Structures are given as C-alpha cells and as structure tokens.
Amino acid sequence: MKQGSSDYKLLTGLFFRLLPYQILLIVISAVNGIVDSLYASNMIGKTAMSAIGLFGPLNHFLYAASIMLVSGTQILYGRYLAKDREKIHGLLTINLIVTGGLALLTSLLLALGVLTGATGILVSQEPDLQMLNQYILGQAIGIPALLLGQQLFAFLSLENQSKRTMAASISCFAVNAVLDHLFIVVFPLGTFGLGLSSSIASWVFLAVQVVYYLAGKSEWKFSLHACRWQDAPRIAGLGYPGALSRFVEMFRCLIVNFLVLRYVGSVGLSAFAASNSLLAVIWAVPFGMVAVSRMLFSISIGEEDRRSLIDVLKISQTRGMLLMGCIVALLILLAEPMTRLFYRDPSDPVYQMTVMGFRILPLCMPPAMLSLHFASYTQTMEKRIMSVILPVVDGMVGVVLFSFLLIPPLKMNGLYIANILNGILCFIVIAAGAWIILKRCPRTLEDLMAIPVGFGVPADKRIDITVRSMEEVMNVSRQITDFCSEQGIDPRRTFLAGLCMEEMAGNVVTHGFSKDTKQHSADIRVAYKGDEIILRIRDNCRAFNPSEWIKVMEPGELGRNVGIQLVWQMASDVSYQNLLGLNVLTIRL
After folding, report:
1. 415 and 530 belong to one structural domain
2. Which of 22, 71, 296, 364 makes an SS bond possible with 291, Cβ 3.0 to 4.6 Å?
C-alpha cells in the first residue's frame, strides 16, 4: 500500500473541483467588464473607455474591501469549524452586517463626490469628467448588492452549493449583457447606462443567493443572537493582509494613470483599459486558485495539518502553474485577434499599444501566481510581517518603481514590462524572508513556506495510509498498531485505534464507494501529539456522519463494529464535518 498518496489526490481533486466555481465568480465580473468595454469602445467612443479606466482605482477599493471581509471570515471559519461550529452562525451575521454598512457608506460617498465635483481630482478635462461622473452614479446603485453577493458566494462555496453559485453568476452575466444593449443601443444612456446595467445585474446576483437563505436550507443562519461582536475586529485583523494588495493597487492605478497620461496620453490609457478588461477574465484563473487555496489553507491550519498545508501550495504551483503556462502561451498567440475586438485600424497608435499589451502583460501571470499564493499563505498562517510586506510590494511598490524607470523611455511597453519585473521582485522578497527565518538559502517550496517548527505533527509522529479497495483495508489495523507500538502507546489504545480504523475504512469502501460510479479513495491519518492519539479518516464519497449512524444502530447490530463502538465510548472527542464535499471524521483518544 502506497502511503501518503491518497490525501494528495483527494486535495488535488477537491482543488480542481472547487476551482471552476471560484473562477466563475471572478469571470462573470470580468466578462461584464469586457461587455461594458465593447459597448463603450464601439458604441460610445474612446472617451468612454477612458472613463472605465479612471474608475479602475475605485474598483480596486471595492475588491479590497470585499476580499478583506471574505478572507478574514474564511480564516475564522477554518478555526471554528474544527472546534466551535456554533460560532459560525454569528460569523455569517457579523460579516453581512459589516459588509452592508460599508457598502452603503461607499455608495453614498461616491454619489456625494459626483454632486460636489470632488471626482475632478481623477480627471479635469471634459467630456472625460462628465462620462466618469455618469459611470460612477450608475455603478453606485449596485455596490451594496455587489459586496453582499460576494460574501454569500463565499459561504455558499463553503457549504458546497455549487449549483446555486453557478446559477447566480450566469444570471448576473445574462442580465448585464441584455441591459447593456438596452441602455446603450435602444435607450442611449451613455456611460450611466453601462454602470446601471452592472448594478441591476449585481442585485440579481444577490437575489438568487438570498433565496437559499430565506428558504431556510442553509447550514449557517443569520442570527443576531449568535453574534460575538469581538469577531468583527478579528475579521478585519485577519483579512486586511489579503486586501492590502488590492487596496494599494488603488494608489498604484492613480500613479500609473498619471504617468501614462503624462508620457503617452489618453490613448495609452485607452489601450491599457482594453487589454486589462480582457485579461481580467484570464486573471480569474490565478485569483480563483488563490480563493480555493485560502479555503484549504484555513482548514488545514485549523486542523494543524502540516502536510495538507504543504500539499495545497504544491498543487497550485505544479499543476496550477502548468495550466497557467498554457493559457499565457495561447494569449500571446491571439494578441492581434483580441485587439481587433476593441480597435480595427492597425495604423491607429492605440491598436499597436493594445497588441503589445496582450503580448507582454500575460507573462507577469506565472510569477504573480507564486506571490499571490504566498501572500494568502502568510495571511492565513498569521505571519504578520511578511503578510504586510509582500502584498505592498506586489500591489504597488514593484510596479510603481519600475514604471517610473521604464515608462518615460519605453512608453506603454515600459508599463507592461514593469508588471513582469514586479513578479521577479516578489519572488526575491519571498526567498529573502525564508532565508532570514531558516538562516540558510531555501531550496524547496516547503523551505520557502518556512512553517513554524511547532506547527502540526512531524512526519515521525504520524502515519498516512491510502485505501482504495477492500484488499487494502485488511492491512490497515496492522499498520496502525505497528505505528502505535513504535510510539510507545499503551496496548489498549493501540489495539482499539487499529481495530476502529480498519472497521471504519471497511464501511467507507463497502457503503461509500458503491453509491456511484466515480473513483473514490480514503485517506487515513493517525497522529501522536502529546499523549493523545488523533485518528482521522477523509473520503470523497457522499455525505455520511458515522456519529448519527452509531446513535440509530439497531439492537441486532450491537455485535458488529465492536471497535467503533468501544472507541466512541472512550474517545475524548469525536467530530464529523463535510468539508467542501469531503467527509472528515476525527477521533481523539
């Protein structure tokens, strides 16, 4: 029996099963941006494209606020899931209250900025200012729905409600596309119509998700009684490193916009907005991977599962990186066809600038994948210094520094190259941080992580077993008893641990594997920490809680599954969770 392979395969399968839905959330927003850009460039004109580009910093602020609340909540979710599940009701409630308040305040401030003329700090000349103001007013209407919808999307993903999230995302896209045509072609509302269509689509996106909660089907409920208000600052404290990169990107956009307008002109801003609007769809892939990794990181840290923590990062940086490399190559090959979606005249300077954007900018995505995942890891692990330094370097310092150096001589190509050099700088920062902690040069991905020495259980204090068939089940008890004996564990607990896990694995194979035609495997982990034996079995079969089964066991079954019954009686703790579609049973002896 090959040890250590099942858990990695389960995580890999889970990673790529969750990935499409996380990508979908980002893609829908990005595709809506593309649709808006196509209508803006083809139906309104270059000035409308400039308005979309000028709104970019505000978009970064909204995304930063959302990701702070999502990531902070997910990290606390991972902590509570293992030991304090009831607190999650209050966590959901606090998240929605804080998000709603922040969203309403933002909408009001944006509307006030338009009415008072404060938006003139972004652009002063007409008609750019007028179009920007109209676009802001249209977008402001949907900001509460946008932010609340993103929070519910995260919770529904954790509840494995993929069909609901997909329905909400597709509805959002369809409504935005129809209304863009209606408000731009049929009723020429200009950039206000572009913003308004996005806002109405965001309200539809929220409504589809809210129905699930109003129907009482969700595991986690909105409950003011369950609120622990001390969790609000904890959400912000845990979440702000994840949002920091996006928040400083708002300032980066302002600086880069200034440099482009000064050294290239508004035509450069139009080219950058066009390439960015389409590449935003592709950025959904690495950002979606980071969202999945963050969920798995938080659960692994909550369980103090050192190996799973490492495996999650390995999956993203091997198979995920291979996928990203193929996408980048395809983008470079399709640079001109993608440019022609926005601009048709090859003699126009904006055409060539956009082509080069599609050829150079994708090259920054692979190094960005590394820095984004490490930023998520350091945030979840609560590495305070690196979780601040890395997002600031990635979000602003690197791009701004290289842009100041390269835009004056190289114009738009200088900006594109600056994004690539930014990724290289981030890797240097990651390696330097690991070198300082380890006091030696990091040689592997695990070295770069610099996991605290006391975290989790070391390799010599645990055993991992793969089970794929009943033949492999027969060896489980022997392997576990041999391990327990080597650790000096008393004979009674040694015997019960082996017997229980063999019977539990047999039940999974017999009843779980046969429920459908999918390929299944079970991962058994036995760890010895302190004087406690921690037994865990994880499988990808249909949801099944053995604790409930024990409670309703028929009298005639009392002679069967003796090991499981004895362990249930003497266990200090037994917990079952269905984590993102995986059954996870943990027993402590």
Report:
1. no
2. 22
